[in-house]
Amino acid sequence: MPRKTRKKQEKAKKPKKEAGKIALAIFTGESVYSNKKEAFTLYEQSRFGEPKEGKIIYSMFEALFLSEKGKLEIKEKSKKITFERLMEKAKTLDSRILTKYIVFKDMRNRGYVVKTALKFGAEFRVYDKGKTPGQEHAKWILYPVRESDFLTWHDFSAKNRVAHSTKKNLLIGIVDDENDVTYYEISWVKP
Prior knowledge:
191 residues, Trna Endonuclease, Chain: A, domain 1, MutS, DNA mismatch repair protein, domain I, disordered N terminus, alpha+beta, five-stranded mixed β-sheet, single chain, 27% strand, 11 strands, 2 domains, six-stranded mixed β-sheet
């Protein structure tokens, strides 16, 4: 069989990749959720959101990230909300949302699963690549800060103690004026 013909037949046999469908979600004024099939698929593939009572509940960071990436269409009272509008609404709920989001986005773009860590007294818990929340434990407790923020030794010690008490390493994500993030990992060492 001629080589060109064989390649054409091989191409014809390959199934076409289906473009990822956009999940539809609702913004309630404080939270974002979806009960659509696409949201559950996205959760299974990438661990965005938390399944609860037949819905996927998104943290504000996850909703912002997915909205910015074009994977989540968010509506409030049947009107679509743009990423920019959602960010403005989020700023009314949390004045530090932009700094936190920059760090969240950077970690997700690097392939880490990032979840909120409010029950630990921290901003985020971060799972090493390939680890699944709920099946494995997070490796880090992550605190996002601006390089212009003031952090005392007491603040630093408190953050490190929270990480240590939860058997995780402390990770501090420092956002500079250009919105680049530098990470510092702190762990306990026994002499």
